[in-house]
């Protein structure tokens, strides 16, 4: 459901861009872990993020799309949007450590994997796909 709503929102925002724009795309890839991620016997936390950053095109269209991409890729547990991937990981690891202090007899691993990919970048259509999976106990 989140994937469909995100794609629809981006398509609507892309409609606000000027016709004929093709964006240049740079992919941000970020991966960081905390602890010994060697299977279930060694609890750890891991974050993997991948999302595009657009340049070129009109400033208004580019900024709106980059803002929505960033909001999806970097939205934290408390719904705030981190300033970058490193800040997102720091907040995620802080929540993981907090859980460990509150429930020391329940060790577990947490992970988060978010990917946003550009599907089409033509003068007529700009579209994205997004995937989000993770585990934070439960």
Protein model, in words:
There is one protein chain. With 138 residues, the chain is of the alpha+beta class. Helix content is 34%, strand content 33%. The protein has helices at residues 2-15, 59-73, 85-102, and strands spanning 24-35, 44-55, 110-121, 126-135. The chain has a four-stranded mixed beta sheet. It is elongated, with a radius of gyration of 17 Å.
Briefly say what this structure is:
With 138 residues, the chain is an alpha+beta fold. It is built from three helices and four strands, in the order αββααββ.
Distance between the termini: 20 Å
Class from secondary-structure proportions = alpha+beta
**What fraction, in percent, of the residue positions are helical?**
25-40%
Q: Main sheet: which strands, in order across?
A: 1-2-3-4
- Structural Rg: 17 Å
Low-confidence regions: none
Overall pLDDT:
85
Question: Topology of this protein?
Answer:
Elements: H1 2-15, E1 24-35, E2 44-55, H2 59-73, H3 85-102, E3 110-121, E4 126-135
Parallel strand pairs: 2-3
Antiparallel strand pairs: 1-2, 3-4
Helix pairs in contact: 1-2
Provide keyphrases for this structure.
33% strand, 4-stranded mixed sheet, 3 helices, alpha+beta, 138 residues, 4 strands, single chain
